[in-house]
Amino acid sequence: SWQKDFVAVIGSSTNRHALLDASRCWRAGMRTIIATNASQAEADRLTRDSKEHNERYVHVEDEQREDSSQRAHAKRPGDVRAALLPSLAGKLLREEKYEWQWMLYADDDTMFLQPGVHTLLAELDPAVPLAISDNIWLARQHPNLAGPRCLPCKPGQAPLQAPSPDYYVPPMGCPHCYPDLACDYYNKRNGKCVYSGAHGGAGVIISRGLMDRMPHQDMVDCVEGEFGCSGGDCLLSRCLWRKFNVTYTDPGYTVAHNSSRYVVFDNPRAKEI
């Protein structure tokens, strides 16, 4: 069910808390972990006040730099908080002994639609390490159908014995999607393949299987070594790729139609139809 199998994890800040109140309609009582730059005392108060909504607020400070010459991990002060949120939420949920299958990773102005999420995940196994999105960043463009990624693993389906097209088609991610597999097309042609990232504002769906192999301290260590990212989604994507050997699984609608109009994770072009 929506409340039993799913958890929502949302990054926010004190000047945006009103959005969290307004977005409760889509969460509908789902267990929700919210990371904010509010003090721990204020986060505790917010947790008490929102108990009926099944929300827990946690303090994660903004990125601090001693002076302007110090390299930033990402563009905005709250980006590190957004990157660390999934692994932190996984740690907190394990401590709570809370059982769940899928994590809906979102900005505070992102919404997930329940029927669409259930349809998208109906044949996927939450025990497999999956990060799911088809709104992929590559070369400063999103959605970008050239971004290295995989299709869901369907063991009962054999690849068609036909000539491969001379453009990137994501491989089937069996047993899951990892960089070398996602990059196979590029590696065979020119040996150049760079990591792709998901557009965080469109949301990402993360499986329990991935969170179980992503210790929070390992994520902290990875983020501390990354610099110059455009956002928290960039930091998260780099660390999935470089530290945890995982990259994104595309639900496959774009591949079936060979058109970015069929991106399902917040597609601006689809709104023009």
Automatic annotation (TrEMBL):
Annotated stretches, region: Disordered: 41-77
GO molecular function: glycoprotein-N-acetylgalactosamine 3-beta-galactosyltransferase activity; nucleotide binding
Organism of this sequence: Chlamydomonas leiostraca
Location relative to the cell: Membrane
Any Pfam family the entry gives: Fringe
Compositionally biased intervals (Basic and acidic residues): 42-70
Enzyme Commission number: 2.4.1.122
Every Fringe-like glycosyltransferase domain range: 188-249
Membrane topology: Single-pass type II membrane protein
Protein name as catalogued: N-acetylgalactosaminide beta-1,3-galactosyltransferase
Top EC class for this record: transferase
Keywords from the named record: Glycosyltransferase, Membrane, Nucleotide-binding, Signal-anchor, Transferase, Transmembrane, Transmembrane helix
Family per record: Belongs to the glycosyltransferase 31 family. Beta3-Gal-T subfamily.
